[in-house]
Specification:
CATH topology: Rossmann fold
Number of domains: 1
Number of helices: 6
Protein name: Histidine phosphatase family protein
Number of strands: 8
Strand content: 15-25%
CATH superfamily: Phosphoglycerate mutase-like
Order of helices and strands: EEHEHEEHHHEHEE
Low-confidence stretches: none
GO molecular function: phosphatase activity
Pfam family, one: His_Phos_1
Strand order of the largest sheet: 4-3-6-1-7-8
Amino acid sequence: MTTTFFLVRHAAHDRVGSVLCGRMPGVTLGALGQAQAQGLAGRFADESVAHIRTSPLERAVETAEPIALRIGLSLEICDDIAEIDFGAWSGTSFEALAQDPRWASWNNARSTSRPPYGETMLEAQTRIVGAMERLRGRYPGRSVVLVSHSDVIKAALLYHLGMPIDAYARFEVEPASISTLVVGEWGSKVLRLNEVVAA
């Protein structure tokens, strides 16, 4: 018996690509992101989904709400699928981060690096994989939507692909994308990666 997981990255906000938002509050979807969220809701309209959870951050909740409304389920907040805690880097522009040698170390060796006062990507992987295992036990033979963040989704996919955390840059997880995998006692299989839904 397997459980299907739809790992959804939140839709676009106005700081994507310019600021490492991390867990900073007040980051909400822009006009494009709102349209993408509606597109995601349409994508799931014909799916048989048993449960939907979201990261507590605003941009994820705003992405998940239209999906939950469309499929007729209540939305559950889940801290275990929240964004990586980037600590002191949260809210810093990527331009400024490029001047910080610790940023280069983080991106070159995620398996052994930690953001200042933050968490490692391996710790984030432990969070999301643990959440998925608990949900697998609760929803055998059914489907679950998890609305999360790029690096956290990558961490889950790397685990299920049997790849090291340092391989995180080998594939993309774009805003408003869906990555689909099935997980069972026998192991797991990725069915679709980075399925981008049109706004």
